[in-house]
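FAQ

Q: What does a record look like?
A: Structure on top, sequence underneath. For example:
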C-alpha cells in the first residue's frame, strides 16, 4: 500500500493504567476506503480516540499527509484534516440541523469542490426537510445523517466513521451505505468501523482486524473474501 494519507506505526494507547493498544500499525491510502473490524472491546474505538488526540499515544507515531500528529490536541487534529463521525453521533441537541452543519464548516485545505449546505442536502434530502428542527427532535437515522453531514462540512482529508450504522433500521442502514459508496466515488479517503462485513466489502479496499489491541489480520477485500472463515474467527460473535 503506497501513498498513505494516514500512517500509524507501533501505536500504544489505553485508559489510565490499563493498556488497550499494543503496537497497532496501519496505512490509509489517499482516495481509499479502509476498515477497522473486530469484536466489541478489541480496541477499535480506542484507536479512533488516539488518532483524534482524545487519548494520548503512549508509544508509536502517526502522520497525516506527511505531518506528525502524534502529540496534537484533538482540535488541532481536526484542523489538520480529519473529520470524525463518532460512535453515538454526538450532534448538538439544542441546535437546529442547519446550525449543526455550519457550526464547524471550513475549507482549510482549499478544496476546489468544497462541501456546502446545498451539497450535503443533495445527498441527504431529509436534512433539508428538517433544516429548522433541533437535533434532539430528529430520529436516530436523521441524527446519523446529520453527524456525517457535519463532518463533511469541515472538508476533511480523511473521514472516520465509528459504528456508522449501529442501531439503525435496515432501510436507513442501506441509505447510509449508499451514501458512503457515493463518497468513495468522490475520492474521499475513509476509515470505517462497522460490524457488517458484507456491506463493508461492497465499498472498502483494505481491511484491518483487531483483537485485544493487536492487528491480527489485514488484507484487501479480495483477500478477505478468500479468507472469510479465518476472519470470522476474529470478528464473529
Amino acid at each position: 500500500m503506497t501513498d498513505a494519507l494516514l500512517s500509524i506505526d507501533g501505536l500504544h494507547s489505553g485508559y489510565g493504567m490499563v493498556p488497550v493498544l499494543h503496537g497497532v500499525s496501519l496505512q490509509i491510502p489517499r482516495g481509499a476506503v479502509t476498515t477497522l473490524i473486530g469484536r466489541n472491546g478489541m480496541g477499535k474505538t480506542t484507536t479512533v480516540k488516539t488518532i483524534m488526540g482524545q487519548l494520548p499515544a503512549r508509544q508509536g507515531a502517526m502522520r497525516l499527509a506527511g505531518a506528525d500528529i502524534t502529540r496534537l490536541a484533538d482540535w488541532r487534529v481536526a484542523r489538520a484534516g480529519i473529520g470524525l463521525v463518532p460512535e453515538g453521533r454526538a450532534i448538538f441537541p439544542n441546535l437546529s440541523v442547519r446550525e449543526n452543519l455550519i457550526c464547524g464548516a471550513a475549507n482549510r485545505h482549499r478544496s476546489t469542490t468544497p462541501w456546502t449546505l446545498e451539497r450535503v442536502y443533495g445527498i441527504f434530502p431529509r436534512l433539508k426537510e428538517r433544516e429548522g428542527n433541533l437535533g434532539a427532535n430528529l430520529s436516530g437515522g436523521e441524527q446519523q445523517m446529520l453527524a456525517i453531514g457535519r463532518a463533511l462540512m469541515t472538508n476533511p482529508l480523511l473521514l472516520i466513521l465509528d459504528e456508522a450504522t449501529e442501531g439503525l433500521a435496515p432501510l436507513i442502514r442501506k441509505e447510509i451505505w449508499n451514501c458512503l459508496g457515493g463518497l468513495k466515488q468522490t475520492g474521499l479517503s475513509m476509515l470505517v468501523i462497522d460490524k457488517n462485513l458484507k456491506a463493508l466489502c461492497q465499498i472498502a479496499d483494505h481491511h484491518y482486524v483487531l483483537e485485544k489491541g493487536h492487528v491480527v489480520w489485514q488484507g484487501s477485500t479480495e483477500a478477505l473474501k478468500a479468507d472469510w472463515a479465518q476472519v470470522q474467527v476474529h470478528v464473529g460473535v
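Q: Is there anything notable about this one?
A: The two ends are 30 Å apart (CA to CA).
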